[in-house]
Amino acid sequence: MSMQSLPTNNVFDAETTKILASAFDAAWEEVKTADGSSADERQTAATRELLARHILALAERGERNPGRLIRNALRCLGRDDG
So where are the chain's domains? Predict the structure, then answer.
């Protein structure tokens, strides 16, 4: 699941969409590095969706700083971002 396929009530401009996608990709890399390859496909998809939803929720509240998006999304998943 990608960020673009998740429903949202807000429409983000192109620059914001790039920021959100970049933050998602970076946060997902952190998750993959921490988890290795132990997760099954359904768990992976669910985690990716939850991560994307957290990032979108932050953006809907106005957050645009990539570092804060990443840190807060990882925190919402109960992960330490290093």
Answer: 12-76
